Amino acid sequence: MVNIFNHLGVDVEFPADQNCCGQPSFNAGLRLDARKMAEHTIQVFEAAPNDIVAPSGSCVGMMRHGYLELFADDPNWLPRAEALAARTYEFTEYLVDVLGVTDVGAHWDGVLTYHPSCHLLRDLGVDRQPRALLASVKGAPLVELPHAEECCGFGGVFSVEHPEISAEMLQRKITNLDKSESPTLVLADTGCRMHIAGGLNRQKKSQRVVHIAEVLANR
Amino acid sequence: MKQFRQRIRKSLADANLQTALDANAQRRVEGSVAAFKTLPDHQERRQHAHRIREQVIASLDDVVAQFLTKVEENGIIIHRAKDADEAVKIALEIINDSPPRRDTLSGTRVREEKQKNKKTWRSSHLDDLKKLIAKSKSMVTEEIGLNEALETADHRIVETDLGEYIIQLRHEKPSHIITPAVHLRRQDVAQLFHKELGIPYTEDIPTLTEVARKNLREIFIEADIGVSGINFGVAESGTLCIVTNEGNGRMVTTLPRTHIAVMGMERLVPTMNDLALMLSLLPRSATTQKISVYTQFIQNPLPEQKRHLILLDNGRSALRNSPLNDSLMCIRCGACLNACPIFREIGGHAYASVYPGPIGSVISAGLFGAEHAPLAQACTVCGACKVACPVDIDLPKMLLRVRAGEAPKAKEKGAGLSLPVKWGLNAYRRLALHSNLFGVTQKWMGKLASTTKRDFLHLPAWTGWGYSKNFPRPAAKPFRERWSQISENKISGIRPAKEKITKETHITALPTTPDSLIDIFSKELNALSGEIISVSKSEIPKRIITYLHQRGVTQVHIEPDLAEYFHSTEIAIQTEANPNITVGITKAVAAVAETGSILVTGENRDSSSASLLPEIHIAILQVSDIYATLEEVLSLPQLVNAATASLISGPSRTADIEMTLTIGVHGPKELIVFLIDG
């Protein structure tokens, strides 16, 4: 992601004090914990006043919507959370909607298929942006993943709390990936990537899972 | 929680259930998408419906008061129940006080003959005061446990929706709020009917449906009391709206001398216009139909009938005053169940609540308390439920609030999480709040991971993660460390001007159709297996008599108002309800072109039955009474001024066995509209 921004002439800084946005605790229902992590994140980024970009729809969903829920009744923190939410973007959304770029000059050898991650697709409504970026990649025909919009079964803590259900959902995703006949699955979130890649590896499958930034940075 | 996990494992291991659930998810989700395509402005309608329901919940006390005032003026007896026990007690009192059926409907002879033969259920009961109750599908009566309570009191209550009938015979609970027998395959039903009803084994769905029709017909005719739920109450008119496909809803509210309607206090809309909007969304979401076959509007009791309305709270007031209040906007369409990838894997029974799936995980915890709170953990927060919801309830948000302990009677935070996960999250929080510690941990994990050459680590199954996937090896050098190098070599550039790209707007043009209303109406009704015969005014009733002759009909049941126009020497004209007559003739006072529906009104049992009991329903409609939209017809005074009115959209149908469409369940098997043109 940093390489791509550098290529596009955009300065990037990385506030070293940042950790986790707090989504795992928030989604588990442990809101006091999540709140502390959210306060920390807000403070860290208040010291860095530019736009915030994350390579994960899930984290952006948390910072854009989750924080507003966490601080809904807190007149001190809510405006700070709102200010943060207003300048936080998911990577592909930022490229296409803010920078107005769909062709980053990338090249990729071989067929790609795209999995729209749940939070990216339904929480943020980001879908045409990654698709437009992928359509501009040279050398990579994009094939449609059957039932692409179905969840892969990750769901954070869900994947360890309900491993049996998670396994069934993952199998469905892998079967659909097989059907697409694409050697490479591209997505724009880190949790789903870890999950699907872990499942493919367990089954000794040959398909690769890559983050969209890996594709876009490839020249 | 342990039991929940056991139920989940059982569901996952059940191959038949898996096949059934897959078929349900696929057909319903795809079907619903197709159904909404016929409603180009459905996203606007969805938002509008959201606002209407939101306002109803916000001012619920006032809306309830207005509604009940009207209902009472309409002659319906009102009861309010604060909880399930009270609702059951009220129902039992009504049932005990209501007179047993003594009337002229020729079906009563069936009972007398059967009693002579000692074949009827009553023969096994010495106490002849016990009542027979015919029930139309209703989730709220499941919620209060009405069936069990009435059976304990030695009454006989019979479910008449085909799906509910099947599961009642199996002594099971519904596994889906719309399609209660969705977990069963035709072979299961075939076995059940063979064993319980003594018919020869057959997997032919129309045959199985016909068996249910015959058996339940006797129940409708003999029942002392009819029990139904209510889909919507309309505050401005006191109208009770019931939506069914099979016709059982009309049967139980029309034939018995006592009708008991049970409804959740939140199921209200302010106006008939709002109702029209809801009716454009509910069937599309629930059963992928533009409209259900029977949309019934009840204003008054029929002559010699008592209607009771039990308005149920049972935790709804508390839910309304909680952060889960948006869940009360639900119109019980079941779309979120069909869309949910977890429901698709585990089915309804695994939830062990009347209300399963996404909405069930919210309101079960919200209405019934802590034991249901762990259900909300069985969710990846994927958001498919929110997209599917026709009133745009933010279900993921509600589910996360349940997890956060915000339900009125389920205050534990993270309820249902296993201890190791809680400890893990606790440790993680400690790390995340100390940037040094977080970085140091990342670094050490990287160092540790670099001792292996494998890209993925094989974790054991008990870790949860290791059950079906390997774990990617952490980066040897975390990004945090690489950053210092990257930032030194970075290319400084000019920051592009920030210009927001305006989002694409999808302008969906309304279909400009040259079709006349007649054409649209005919096309829609034909698609619903209804038939249209165009006639001129002077030809009526001669054409109908000729038509009946051709079909060898010797006896017809004619709506009393029409009888004077019909004369025939060969065909006996009857105006009284009689289940042995195969043809019924009624007026259609209006029609809806966009849905292919006709509107019939009923002031008494004889007039209402003519469009319900016979196998063939003939309706006479004037071209000038065809309206374009549902909204227009729902605003007609003849609808709200009638004791009851029904929009009929084709012959009765069901899809309760393997979602296979079968025509002719409880209501007519044929609908023929004689359209008077000029």
List keywords for this structure.
heterodimer, A: 219 residues, alpha/beta, Rossmann fold, 2 domains, 4-stranded parallel sheet, 12 helices, 6 strands, 9% strand, B: 678 residues, Fumarate Reductase Iron-sulfur Protein, Chain B, domain 2, 8-stranded mixed sheet, 6-stranded parallel sheet, elongated
Helix amount of chain B: 40-55%
The CATH topology of the largest domain in chain A turns out to be Rossmann fold
Output the strand order for the largest sheet of chain A: 4-3-5-6
Highest CATH level, the class of the largest domain in chain A: Alpha Beta
Computed structural class of chain A: alpha/beta
**Secondary structure tally: strands of chain A:** 6
What does the radius of gyration of chain A come to?
18 Å
Low-confidence stretches of chain A at least 5 residues in length (pLDDT < 50)? Answer: none
> Uncertain spans of chain B, ≥5 residues at pLDDT below 50?
106-114, 116-127, 491-514
Q: Give the CATH topology of the domain at 517-676 in chain B.
A: Rossmann fold
Total domain units of chain A: 2
Task: Summarize, please.
The complex is a heterodimer of chains A (219) and B (678). Chain A is built from 12 helices and 6 strands.
How are the elements arranged and paired?
The complex is a heterodimer of chains A (219) and B (678).
Chain A: H1 2-7, H2 23-28, H3 31-46, E1 52-54, H4 57-70, H5 77-86, E2 88-90, H6 91-98, E3 112-115, H7 118-123, H8 128-135, E4 142-143, H9 158-161, H10 163-180, E5 184-187, H11 190-202, E6 208-211, H12 212-216
Helix pairs in contact in A: 3-5, 4-5, 6-8, 10-11
Chain B: H1 2-13, H2 15-37, H3 42-58, H4 60-73, E1 77-81, H5 84-97, H6 107-117, E2 132-135, H7 139-143, H8 146-152, E3 156-159, H9 162-169, H10 186-197, H11 205-222, E4 225-229, E5 232-234, E6 239-244, H12 248-254, E7 258-264, E8 268-269, H13 272-287, E9 294-298, E10 306-312, H14 316-320, H15 335-339, H16 341-346, H17 357-368, H18 384-388, H19 395-403, H20 419-432, H21 435-449, E11 456-457, E12 471-472, H22 479-489, H23 517-527, E13 531-535, H24 542-550, E14 555-558, E15 572-574, E16 583-587, E17 590-592, E18 597-602, H25 605-609, E19 616-622, E20 626-627, H26 630-634, H27 637-640, E21 644-648, E22 653-654, E23 662-663, E24 670-676
Parallel strand pairs in B: 1-10, 2-3, 2-4, 4-7, 5-8, 7-10, 13-24, 14-15, 14-16, 16-19, 17-20, 19-24
Antiparallel strand pairs in B: 5-6, 6-9, 9-21, 11-12, 17-18, 18-21, 22-23
